[in-house]
Amino acid sequence: MRLLSLLIVFSIATSLKAAGTGRDSLAVVSDSTRSDTARSTITIRSAIENARVVLDAIDLGATPVINYSLTAGTHILTVHSSELWNCFTTSIIETITVRQSENIERMVSFPHSFTVNSDPYGARVWYNDSLVGTTPVQFIPPATGSIRLSKEGYRDFYSSLPVGGEGSVHAVLEPFKPVGGGQSPLLRSMPQTSHSVCIATSAAVMSGVAAVYFKISADKLYRDYQQTGDGTTLQHVKRLDVAAGVSLVVSEISIFMLYSLLLSQ
């Protein structure tokens, strides 16, 4: 009889323990389900594309940030106007309080911004002599001013930024075009100077040849004069020497003119 009583008591205790374990398991499942349904989220958008979002020193990337999970409590939200930090980057800092199961949406607005595009793209953008970036670029100037776009092979583009509000500048860059269809300066000037060059060249060559001819003839007659002592031959030698000298001077002047014409081009 006593043994039977002990078996009954043990059976009841075992049943009670199993029931308690089941209730604990149900409580864990219930808490887990409650935790999933009670989570908070935040969605962050901005008027400027690709603004950089930082939440409690955690970089969340560029906007838009959709349904980012976070715990209930107080958080610090920082949104930078640009993914790349520069002297024109503007930051919006906000303290937000999140409650359980709350879905927060934030639209971040910045001061007036400007978008600069160019055709072709990849031009450097200067704001008041400070480099902003390369097109396409969006930035927030600290004040009104002017911009300059520069690209190799193209003329610089200048523009004043509109006063107040958002705006955009689209620049069509003009390529450098050599005057005269891309010909070299010498070739471009040939039609105007070809006659002068030809005359100077011909004069230099012909007068040079004449100077040599007159000099050779004078030397030959002078040898004859040495043998004969004829005064007429000597006079003829002198005339040939004068002709050779004049021809040499003309040749030098022609060469100088030709050299000047070529240098002027």
Describe the structure.
- There is one protein chain.
- This protein is α+β, with helices and mostly antiparallel strands and 265 residues long.
- The protein has three helices and 14 strands.
- The strands form four sheets. A four-stranded antiparallel beta sheet has the order 3-2-5-6, with no helix packed on it. It has a four-stranded antiparallel beta sheet with strand order 10-9-12-13, with no helix packed on it. Strands 4-1-7 form a three-stranded mixed beta sheet, with no helix packed on it.
- A hairpin with a 2-residue loop joins strand 2 (52-55) and strand 3 (58-62).
What structural keywords apply?
265 residues, alpha+beta, Immunoglobulin-like, 3 domains, four-stranded antiparallel β-sheet, 3 helices, rod-shaped
Briefly say what this structure is.
The protein is an alpha+beta fold and 265 residues long.
